[in-house]
Amino acid sequence: MTATAARPGSTGTGRRAERFARPVLLAFLLVAAADLAGLIAGAETVHLVAKPMLMPLLAGYAALRGAPRLLVAALLFGWGGDVFLLADDDLAFLVGMGSFAVGHVCYLTLFGRGEGRGRAPAPLVTGAGYAVVLVVFLVLIWPDLPADLRIPLTGYSLLLTAMAWRAGVFGPYAAAGGALFLLSDALIATGIAEWPQAPAPDFWVMLTYIAAQALLTLGVLTKHKTQHKPGA
After folding, report:
1. Quick one: the chain helix, strand, coil %, rounded to 5?
2. How much is the average pLDDT of 173-180?
3. How far apart are the C-alpha atoms of 80 and 70, rounded to whole Å?
4. HSE on the CB side for 135, CA within 13 Å?
């Protein structure tokens, strides 16, 4: 007997939850569009309102789709990072970075469990490539970083790079999400180091970040749904 059959009505409940999931996903997409448009237009108030809404909506969508709890937790810790990073304060930045770091630990734990359930391990060649990129980037940016942020940013970068590499366990969507997350945070780091920036730098940071979290969510949900098909 399957787990679904052992719980009468669970199929109907799941279908009802999925019906609610679509409006929540639409709300996430609309808020994301508003946030990005606000950044392009220089409307700071729009960004301040929209940014804290993004991850709760994406986490709600994931939960309604029956996502693993670790995915929902990772998204909510991302929300904590989003909120703290809105403040222009060094302590708030470190707390926000810490919240993101806990989210990456949630992702890493989830990806580790994925490897243990018959999925292929993350390729070592990909890991070596990420390691080379990380070392080169840190060597280049190190002299331009504030002294008190060098060690925290290095530790965080190691954790983020490990997450980006291991994301491939959940397929190409999650792998792309991990890579975009790395790019988004690299753009933040170059801003801290006061390197030359593209026009509207906050737009590019948020675009890559939103896409990263959405692709990670899609990758995990796709693999999770396939794994839990009846008879699978």
Report:
1. 80, 0, 20
2. 97
3. 15
4. 6
Q: What is the pLDDT of residues 18-41, one digit of tens each?
A: 788 999 999 999 999 999 999 999
Q: Determine the Cα–Cα distance for residues 79 and 53; give it in Å rounded to an integer.
A: 8
Contact 93/84 with Cβ under 8 angstroms? yes
Query: 11-25: string of b/e by CB count within 10 Å (b at 16+)?
Result: eeeeeeeeeebeebb
Compute the CA torsion angle 212, 26, 77, 102 (nearest 10 deg). Answer: -30
CA distance to 37, 113, 124, 165, 180, per residue, from 121 (Å): 39, 11, 9, 10, 20
Instruction: Give the span between the Cα atoms of 103 and 110, in whole angstroms.
Output: 11
CA distances from 87 to 48, 84, 95, 210, 212 (A): 10, 6, 11, 19, 22
In which band, very low, low, confident or very high, does the pLDDT at 9 lie, cut at 50, 70 and 90?
Answer: very low
pLDDT tens readout for residues 84-133: 999 988 899 999 999 999 999 999 999 998 755 556 667 788 899 999 99
Distance of alpha carbon 149 from alpha carbon 195, whole angstroms: 16
Q: What is the pLDDT of residue 123?
A: 79
Average pLDDT, the chain: 89
Residue 230, classified by CB atoms within 10 Å of its CB into exposed (0-12), middle (13-18) or buried (19+), is exposed
Nearest to 219 by CA among 180, 182, 162, 161: 180
